Amino acid sequence: MRMQLVLAGVAVVGLLSGCDTIPPGAERGPHGTMAYNVPISSDPPGVRIQANGEDVGMTPLTLKIFGDPDGTFHDFGSYEYVIQALPNATNQFVQTAVYRTGHMLTPEDRVPQQIHFDMFQPPPQPPNYGAAPAPGPYPVPAPYPYPYYYGPPAYYGPRVYVGPPVYYRRYYHY
Prior knowledge:
Blueprint: H1 2-17, E1 34-43, E2 48-51, E3 54-58, E4 61-67, E5 80-86, E6 95-100, E7 115-118
Parallel strand pairs: 1-7
Antiparallel strand pairs: 1-4, 2-3, 2-5, 5-6
């Protein structure tokens, strides 16, 4: 009788500890998520905003993002959640905010409290890996003799075969 009470207590504790609770007053979303209302502003206002390729409106606006109760983005099947601000005049640049969702065990980002886009900020320049070296007093000589690839080194150690047994058949011709 005592053992049954202990097992019943352990089962009740297991059931109660496995419940995922959402804070009171929070809006519930699909797949056990909750809604986060994120205000988005821009300089200048009136910029078109896209979230994952869909138009959501003009700034200033409040975007509803469904995330996990711990404050991170929920994995709805994509690796990233992308928010873009599209320019509405010349001398403005497309601004992009990318957040990781934790898809396939990748890191996940927290849902931001607010997002602000400065449309006059130029995008970062990509690195120029093919640039020539800076001119100096002497030119850089080419390596001589030119390197030659000989392939991987030969392996002379013991051979280990893992798999089904191999049967050799010998054919004798008489």
